[in-house]
Amino acid sequence: MKLLNNAIAGTLESSDIQIFIEPKEEAGIEIELKSNVEKQFGRQIRKVIKETLESLRVEGAKVTANDKGALDCTIKARVQAAAYRAAGIKEKFDWEVIE
């Protein structure tokens, strides 16, 4: 999936995560995480973000994530929504479960 624009998904409400994604020219996924549970769950949050983007075949992206205690399923959903928005995909979403 080729990212064309910056995009955002999610809120700053409790139990949610706000994902801001922007395209990068270089390959690789860069993740900046802000979370009050980063010491306990930061590694897992980064892993879910990275694996979700890799499953969508996103090759170059900078992600800024502001976590408020989101579960893995919420993180995946927000990352998917932001990626589809950034790629300009507005219909025919592939919502297959990502494992």
| Mean pLDDT over the residues | 92
Radius of gyration: 12 Å
* Class from helix and strand fractions: alpha+beta
Summed up, the domain count is 1
Q: How would you write the strand order of the largest sheet? A: 1-2-4-3
Helix content: 25-40%
Question: Globular, elongated, flat, extended or rod-shaped: what is the shape?
Answer: globular
In total, the number of strands is 4
Rounded to the nearest angstrom, the distance between the terminal CA atoms is 18 Å
CATH fold category name: Ribosomal Protein S5, domain 2
Uncertain stretches: none
CATH architecture: 2-Layer Sandwich
Strand content: 25-35%
The helix tally amounts to 2
Order of helices and strands: EEEHEH
CATH class category label: Alpha Beta
Major sheet characteristics: 4 strands, mixed
Describe this protein's structure.
The protein contains 2 helices and 4 strands. With 99 residues, it is an alpha+beta fold. The chain has one domain: Ribosomal Protein S5, domain 2, CATH 3.30.230.10. It has a 4-stranded mixed sheet. It is globular. It starts with 6 loop residues before the first strand and ends in a 12-residue tail after the last helix.
Which labels suit this protein?
99 residues; alpha+beta; Ribosomal Protein S5, domain 2; 4 strands; 26% strand; globular; cytoplasm
Topology (elements, then pairings):
Elements: E1 7-9, E2 17-23, E3 28-35, H1 38-55, E4 60-67, H2 72-87
Parallel strand pairs: 3-4
Antiparallel strand pairs: 1-2, 2-4
Helix pairs in contact: 1-2
